[in-house]
Amino acid sequence: MQTEPSKSSGGLKALFLGLFIVGAIVLIRFSPVKDALTAEALDTFLQSVGFWAPLVYVLVYAVGICLFIPGTLLTGLGAAIFGPYWGFLWAWTGAMIGSAGAFVIGRTLGRELAASLIGDRLKKYDEAIERNGFATVLYLRLVYFPFTPMNFGMGLTRIRFRDYLVGTGLGIIVGTFIFTFAIGTLKEVWASGDWGQLVSFKIFFSLALFIFSFFIPVLIKRFKGHAA
Description:
By secondary structure, the chain is an all-alpha fold. The protein has helices at 3-29, 39-49, 53-66, 71-82, 84-117, 120-131, 133-142, 147-155, 161-171, 173-192, 201-213, 216-227. It has two domains: 3-27 and 38-173, no CATH class; 176-227, no CATH class. Helix 5 (84-117) runs parallel beside helix 8 and helix 7 (133-142) packs parallel to helix 9. The chain starts with a helix and ends with a helix. Mean pLDDT is 82; it is low at 1-5.
């Protein structure tokens, strides 16, 4: 008798979650909002807010993640606007807040229905994620599992929020730093007009890191295979 109300309530919440996701995609892809998501437009807007530019960018990043804007786009914009180091800090902060927000949305609107639909076969996997939540999230972040779907998807499981947040924070540090360092460094050379810097150690190092980042998932999987 208690299962049906749970399914009914969970189904209604899941409907809201579905409507939220569809609405977010429509808003970003078919509204004027997408025109504001360029380096020029965002840079102009952030310059207009002056001292508050980093905070505004972090908020834009966090909201953008919840609205299914690709994290790589937002990170690249941050690197181009704030440079390799501050760009990394603000992008990582925005990604953390955004991933936490998406997780809470998924947990609040989708977990109840997911739990009611989980049978005996899937229950053991749900429990395993709860036990090994930190390691699971860390591994998936390091192998570049799609960022936003994972944020919402993890909210549907029994994973502890603390494990999810810490695993995310550590898991995205390397990739975020490499990406912002490469983009930010190239932007600094472009802005200075000193094209001789294109053959500097810093440029080669940033490009090497960027190329290396594509091999991280392979290395992690290979290491995991050897450990197993």
